[in-house]
Amino acid sequence: MSREKCFKIAVYSHITNHFPLLCRQDALAKLQSYQRKDFVGIFEAMDGLPVTIRLLDPPLHEFLPHDGKELDDLTQHLVQEYQAKGGQHMMAYKVLRSKLGSLHEANPMMGLRGCRLGIVHPDITKMQVSAILEAAVDVSKRGFKVKPHIMVPLVGFEEELSHQSKIIREMAEKVFAENKTTVEYKIGTMIEVPRGALRAGDLAKEAEFFSIGSNDLTQMTLGFSRDDAEAKFMEAYITNGIISADPFEILDTQGVGELINLTVQRGRKARPGISIGICGEHGGNPQSIAFVESAGLDYVSCSPLRVPIARLAAAQAAIKSLLKGDSNDHCQD
After folding, report:
1. CA-CA-CA-CA dihedral for 47, 51, 55, 56, to nearest 10
2. Which CATH number does 43-59+108-324 carry?
């Protein structure tokens, strides 16, 4: 199932919040079926290895048309879905067009996404957690070893993580009771909001692992919109010596790096041994990998094309640490 199709169904479930419960349940049931099938394949392929699954994190408006024929076609499709449930055509049309318009956000990367979506619409979290754990149970019954790690994105407040963790545990109990079997799972979070890094000690009381989302953490720490910065002023900043390199390619070790160090220190003080990794473009950059090795992170995550470079850089960084007599021999891919 494509990422875009998945998110469009999630958006549909968000839109139908204004219509009969049956419409919303139908949308979520479709998405749960797609997700469960995908997770079954992933767990089978990763037999015996941990699989970290980030809960849905879409800036909603990016996956819907905003005007023209595509918007008309989508609205008509949703109206037909609604009419099939006995709704009135004109009321459905007006409310849907209004709702589609209201999904637009001036700053979507800081808008209704991540854990915020799950808090506003907990049914979306329930759906995805059910799909993850139903797939895990199914695969486990057939002899595969599954290790799902459920990651709650964009957390800055301990209460956000507690809210979503409660839902995850409730759905786990429900799925396990229905299937009369259990699987081990972990709950963690992404550290991508500066407040989350500063309050890592609080989050570690609930989270069993951290993944540092370096792309968003860079955007929010520097106040740079990645697309706008690279298109409009990044070159001038580098040319004039204000910064030495694009911070979305090479980690800003002084600013963003300080937040990463705080995350490690405060997180492990609250939960000794907590697994901490980094996820983003920096995970495949040799200079950035050298820094995360020195910071004591356990792993890097990057796009498939960057894996060979990441492995080599991680090995080189680990060897340098050992030669220097450092104890931070954590970094792996």
Report:
1. -70
2. 3.20.20.60
Neighbours of 278 (CB within 10 A): 28
- What are the phi and psi torsion angles at 147 (to 5°)? -135, 75
What is the C-alpha end-to-end distance of the chain, expressed in Å? 26
> What contacts 171, CB < 8 A, 6 or more positions away?
125, 126, 129, 130, 133
* Residue 304 · residue 284 · CB < 8 Å: no
Rounded to two decimals, the pTM is 0.84
Contact status, residue 296 vs residue 269, Cβ threshold 8 Å: no
Contact 297, 277 (CB under 8 A): yes
Q: Which of 175, 132, 173 is nearest to 43 (CA)?
A: 132
Dist. CA 286–CA 266, nearest whole Å: 26
Please enumerate in sequence order all residues whose Cβ is within 8 A of that of 34, keeping only pairs 6 or more positions apart, or say none: 1, 5, 6, 9
- What Rg do the C-alpha atoms of the chain give, in angstroms? 22
E-strand stretches of the chain: 50-54, 147-152, 186-191, 209-213, 275-279, 299-301
Residue numbers of the chain with a pLDDT score lower than 70: 1-23, 59-68, 71, 78, 81-93, 95-97, 100-101, 326-333
Query: How far is residue 212 CA from its own chain's centroid?
Result: 10
